[in-house]
## 1
Amino acid sequence: MSEEQIKNLEKQFEERIARDEKIEPKDWMPEKYRQTHIRQMSQHAHSEIIGMLPEGNWITRAPSLRRKVALLAKVQDEAGHGLYLYSATETLGISREELYEQLHTGKAKYSSIFNYPTLTWADMGAIGWLVDGAAIINQVPLCNTSYGPYSRAMIRVCKEESFHQRQGYEIMMKLANGTPEQKEMAQDALNRWWWPSLMMLGPTDDKSVHTAQSMKWKLKRKTNDELRQQFIDQTVPQADLIGLTIPDPDLKWNEERQSYDFGEINWDEFWQVVKGHGPMNKERMRARINAWECGEWVRDAAMAHAEKKQQRKQKQAV
Amino acid sequence: MSTKNWPLWEIFVRSKNGLEHRHFGSLHAADAEMALENARDVYTRRNEGVSIWVVESKHITASNPENNGELFEPAQDKVYRHPTFYDLPDEVKHM
Amino acid sequence: MKENLYNYILGIADNSLILGQRMGELCGHGPSLETDIACTNISLDLFGQVRSYFQYAAKVSGDGRTEDDIAMLRKERDYKNVLLVEQPNTNFAYTIARQFLFDAYHLAFLSELQKSTDLTLSAIANKCIKEVSYHERFSSDWVKRLGDGTEESCVKMQEAIDDLWTYTDELFHQTEADKAMVAEGVGVDVTKLKEDYYKRVHRLLEEATLKVPQLKWFQKGGKEGIHTEHLGYLLSDLQYMQRAYPNMEW
């Protein structure tokens, strides 16, 4: 194809997206669109899968049977969401195994927040409330994103995820209304998860490299800073309601902006964790690689068995 | 890394009797039985289905969007296939 | 309190509780995403059953204890599960072998429990049997895949079956509570399930190209609270919160 032809196709492509048309797997798309989507969608899928680990850490120790089944179901949903997203990514011509390979070799990123440890039961509450809360803010606009399979996966994810944040907030509420020891546990979890949750919404707009292009392709509807503000504005009253204190001395209602002003985020910490120096990066990766490698003989056996079965069937037919 | 990975399957679920099977997504499985079981666990956890079809993705033949012009556009102006093409006086009932 | 009925319910429920806990350990660590989700489903089914049983046990005990008190605040010697279900997830072959060897029993057991004169128990059995039929299908399919898969998987599967075989006979052992409950028409006479169980298991092992272990001596004791060393560690996880923070609501 000549350069001019490609330019022409690109123009038509951008116009389709601007008209809110969806792009489907077999449609022509610019290579950059494909690559950007593989990157973002797989990063999203990896985050779901890695995200199972910090919470999975408390399944065997959940304090009641009711909490245990809720947590199990939630972590299982994350596996499901990872699966939907990997499947959607595969429509772009890359296999799940290749995507795992990228994750295991450190080529692909995942949400940095899962590199923090879950130390107490209250962390299950804090993750559900804050981390899922921040994730929902990110995800809801993606239900309308331009790539059809991604948008459909996100619609399913958002529908299922609606119980996750409620589950987390309910845990926090119960703790905050419990004994002093329980309330302290809740406050401690909020203290540790608040700032990483704010970082989760991404670098500030002036440092964010992908925003403009992502806006055009509807991978993003609002900027990181707008999303962060939205998250803070909706979360602060929720903390107030259960008598917990947001660990930010600079947090203050701004009457003029009708929004909260908030303190400086430690971006140095953010970038260090992204680069692999968080408290749990190595452990998380080890757990994933271990599951994959220990599962290899199992997956191979299933394939070998399927082939044998197929051969027997063919023999019978003859 | 394994040489043979579990192939991809497309999953179709009937939400309730009376409705058609609808494409729900895909997943990996070694064989059709496993694909059915996995589909049950992955796509009907919330009681979403009463029947499941699984088809190995490689068996699906899809039309090429480059041919959309010749495939689908000729149907656009065949308005006589739609009831609104036919003008009838308002007095005619039940039609 | 109806001591025998209470103990009888615990004997059933503890199997689901401990096996559910074992399956729950795998969440996030399965050999494939799809299998991970399937194992969690089994765990969720089992915990659902546990809650029905313990809610009933709490009612029977009538001393104000809750399902969680019963599940999490007993001493190790008071857990009545069979030794089989507490065995660890050494590898996926052990997970599957444990599951199948239990499912084949569980299915037969529930099908009899449906006929119990105790209407609560028969209603629970009636609900659970559909879940367990699926578990049995899942685990027996996997025994076949691993047994009749690759050379490596066949060795691993055989090893798991050989190791766990010693815990199968206990499934058909009767406690005093069992006998009393059978006499009342409430309980299931597990001794009558034994023959069909081994027939079913033999048939599947054969189909999976696995050998039936020739064992004459079996381990038992779980039903009387004499467990393997594995249970203590499992309980320290299960009970951690209730022990560290007593008398609180979650």
Note: Chain B has a mean pLDDT of 91.
## 2
Amino acid sequence: MQKKNTEIYKNQSFFNSYLIKDAFYGYKRYLLFGFLVVVGAVGLSFLTPLVITFVIDFVISNEVPDMPGFLLNIVKEADRKYLLDNIWIPALLIVLITMIAGIFIFLRLRISAQISEGVSKRLKDRLYSHIQNLPYDYFKHISAGDIVQRCTSDVETIRRFVSVQMMEILRTLVMIVISMTVMVSVDYRMALVSSSLLPILFIMSFLFFKSIKSKFTISDEAEGRLSTVIQENLSGVRVVRAFGQQQAEVDKFEKANSEFKKVTTKLINTMAKYWGASDMLTFLQIALTVVVGTLLAVKGELTVGNVILFTTYVSMLVWPVKQMGRILSDFGKAVVSVCRLEEITDEEEEREPGLALKPEIKGEIRFEGVCFGYEDSDHEVLEDITFEIKPGETMAILGSTGSGKTSLVQLIQRLYEVNGGAIYIDGVNVNDIERHHLRNNIGIVLQEPFLYSKTIMENIKISKPDISDRAVYEVANIAAIHNDIESFEKGYETEVGERGVTVSGGQKQRIAIARTLIQQAPILIFDDSLSAVDTETDKRIREALLERRQNTTTILISHRIVTLSEADVIIVLDNGRIVERGSHDELVKSGGMYSKIARIQSEYADEDYE
Amino acid sequence: MSQQIEVTDEKIMEEKVNPQIWKRLIKYALKYKSVLFGGIAAMLIVALADILYPLLNRYAIDVFIIENDLSSLAAYILLYIVVIVVQGFCVKGFISRAGKLEMSMAYDIRKEAFKKLQQLSMSFFDKTAVGYLLARMISDIGRISDLVAWAMIDIIWSVSFVFGSAVMMFFLNPTLALLVLSVVPVLTVISIYFQRRILRWQRKIRNTNSKITGAYNENILGAVTTKTLVREEKNFEEFRELTKKMSDYSKRSATLSGIFFPLVLLLGNIGTALALYKGVKISQIGGITLGTLAAFIQLSRQMFEPVQQIARILAEMQTAQASAERVLTLLDTEQEVVDTPEVIEKYGDEFNPKIENWPEIKGDIEFKNVVFKYNRGEVVLDDFSLKIKAGETVALVGETGAGKSTISNIVCRFYEPTEGQLLIDGVDYRERSYLWLQRNLGYVLQVPHLFSGTIADNIRYQKPEATDEEVIRAAKLVNAHEFIINQPKGYQTEVGEEGAKLSTGQKQLISFARIMISDPKIFVLDEATSSIDTETEMQIQKAIKDVMKNRTGIIVAHRLSTVRSADRILVISQGKIVEEGTHKDLMSLKGRYYDLYTNQFKESQTVKIIG
């Protein structure tokens, strides 16, 4: 799967991607400026050796060195005697050139950071906001780990491509052009000699880094296995101990540990060979320049200063050339990353299918022949559901897992859209109500609520950050969680969520109830949200809620008859259809499923438990 | 999780380099003296060659060009090539040795730490997250071995190169040498200053980055909640603040590097300029040759790399110190449950048991005035006494936090009584070895934990030498055989993510089979609360009954249908036994047990009807 994708990705181009185009928008002038700065910095850095050559040849030895034409004219004008007496002038020139070059280098690094960080921030923000606005259904089909990985590592790959690779390639190219121009204008034979081994170095590093990738993968995989062994051992520590298998575990670990050591040492050995060989080639290139240069100098065809010049230039060129081989060897990575990100951004965001109205909501809910099924299956989850709840009324739903009760309440919030029929709130089709407005007016407590990595206080205030602490205590009391929170060491300031302390399922549910109550929405939905709370606390919460529910339209999903019986109307769902409906008394008399359950849950004689 | 802990740790750690810590780590490297010294020797030769190149160039200028004496040319070329080849091999030599040293150190420290983890007490694991330990085992150990191995060799190269170049310069011309070297202290100070600050920013960048990762994670895991609470805008606002911080920090770090690198370059060129300025003057009066001048210029340019290296290593040591400390703390953690030397003498330890000395076990268990307190002082059990005869099954019932799990943990010796004794067959279990008890104990966890590998591997866990027939017999005993042979590869089906998708109930059955294979005398079951389908539940009930035959059993039960068949039921509340008897006794008592049981019965019946 992964491999196949990589193949497809290869046909794409980096700069043609709409993601990259958008992310680079407005940075074109920076790019141009960056290019100029690179040319400036490289040009100046190649100037210093020329000054040294000039001093050695002209000032000391009184020879006119071979130099690029325009410099030669300056040199010819110079007063040798004066310079010899005032040798600080060329010395200061070197410092000055370096200072200016330094400013260029600073600008280069700064601009490169400006562009790459800007691009990376735009990509991250766009991805985050896009993911947030994807339809609920999307999240059921993806793995969180995979998406997080893409949003972090793949963005990082692109950032590195922009900041390091693009700049480095540009710099190396400018370097090669400038140095070759200077070298050829000085002595074309020496230019040839001084660059003769460079292509080999380049190809060597390119091929090496391309071929070593698989070895890196092997080492990474070995590390992964080592980490799996440790993780399994730690999460199963009780089993290990209870079975007295410490020695067997050590043996298992030993295998993974030595395997990782073996393959990685091997990898480093291969690297060592490459570095040894490439260093030899590097110095061979320098030696070649020194020796040939010397011979030409002996013949009088080259000045001493120029020998030094070529030696310096070669040393300056070798490293970037090697580096470029390495960079080009993983050029394809950025393209693959872009494609992996586009797979996320290509997904369509939630839409407004209708008029996007923002009416004032009182709380009347009406289902008219609602049908619903998930996109990827033929199975109908809800069929022909029709009912009406008046403002302030309470409806309860009883049904098994998979009967469609959760889908039913999610449709009201338009987390999904209906396939047939329609849902009206105060007579307005929910498809015509702007979704944020709609959801703001419906408070829902999920069965397995999610808490953010924030303090409990912040979690409860999440939809109304400006509300007073007193209001928080009030809802926490209704949700019977206040005392629990106070018993934590840091009270309401306790961090929860993935990073914080673990709270029990029941506590989570109760915090979620408090969080929903603070919304003060005209419609409240409890999706089996007291399942993890013991019966006594359940009762307390229900009593406290009763008062508050007077003006609120409420939908309750529960298995507990005591809870259900408080509703004005109860519907029993089975396989996506309403099979019974009525008040508690009516349903008990009807002799259906509800009445059976009611009988079981009411008082029983002891022998029935046998 | 692990990342977050790292974040807070990194915030705390902003200390000076602590030699004590590094001394201890270097000891791990010193185990591989020949590799270490081989690497150092190779590095010294590399440094020597690096110093030789300017001298070789000097010779070419002075002798060949200026004096026009080509007689030694062939020898010169040969020497040049020899130096290059020798250096090339030494480069290979030092890299491969440093790599070997790094990997060997990591291997050794990991091994030691892993063994330590096999010995540490359960109290340690109960308060330490797996992710945290995993980060110590993988990244921290990797980081410090990398640093120690390479830093030692790099430092040797840097120091010897700087020192060698200095000596060489003094040898060529002391005045000029002093002048050029005057830049070095300035460079050192500047490098240390900048490297330290750059690393500090990078740490901030890493922290922010892990927060961004966390935010993405929340974005996905909390997707519905965000939608229902209409939190999108605020979430995005908070996220943009994070990415803004991230890009600000990165830009600041880039600014620092942007100042640092040109500064180093400038200092290097000031050295060159000084060499040129004074060198030309001296050469005019015949003090030095042209070749020497060129050599000075070249040496002054080369000196800057090693000085930066030293600064970088010092800065890295500072940041890696936190990793080192965390690893050493782990290695130094004390065990709480530990066998006395006499016990180890007689029965062996975790890794070298003396099974021949182990006494037979019958299975009588007695809590004798047991007190159990957590370290923070909270009393869970106070003067708790209980006798369980060999072969008897006792079920513990009660609310969360009543002390049921503590009782089973004490029987397993995951925790030991703070006061009082636990007697097995009439003898305090601390007088026998930890492993003796555990090899005679069968234990099933709330959440069944299987190891990666095949189903057969898992059943064989305690008895790797068990034959296939034994494995099948064990599986049949707990009614697991049926579903196992229906898996794609039967007993050879891989357990875990990629392989068969086993339900919790099926995993539970496999963990029962795992117990049956070793035929333990004592059986402890910490029963699952998680819901499983009715059919599997019935199978598990049956499995429990089978497992309990002829064994002493302790069941921490949540599902009361499991409890009914126990010989004795204890209702525990606040560390005390409040009701005791058979199911029938307790039902007629109409106390707590009656309430618990009727409530659960109602719920299970409801679920049964609505399906």
Note: Residues 59 and 81 of chain A are 8 Å apart (CA to CA).
